[in-house]
Amino acid sequence: MKRPPYGSRPRLSREMAQLNWLATGLAQAGSRIERTHWHSRLQSLVEQLLADGDDESLNTVLNRLSESEPVAHDALMDTIESAVESTVTQINGEAHDVLLIACPLLAWSRYAIPAPVLNSKDQTALSDALKATVLTRHANVALLGMLAGPDQIPREFTQLAQLTRHLAESLASGKTAALHAQASEETNRFLSDTRYLIAAVSVPRGEAFFRWQEPRAANSSVQLNERREIAAAWSTQALKVLEPLLAGCRVQMLPPDAFHAACAAADRESRPHSVEACVRFLAEAINLPPEKQRAVIGPFHAQRLEEYRIGLGPRHEDALYHGVVWPMLGVEDEQVDMAVEIEQVLRRLGVTDIVTHDHRFPMEYCDDCGSPMYANADGELAHLEMPEAMTAQPSILH
Ligand SMILES: [Zn+2]
Question: Which residues have CB less than 5 Å away from ligand 1 (the ion)?
Answer without folding.
Answer: 366, 368-369
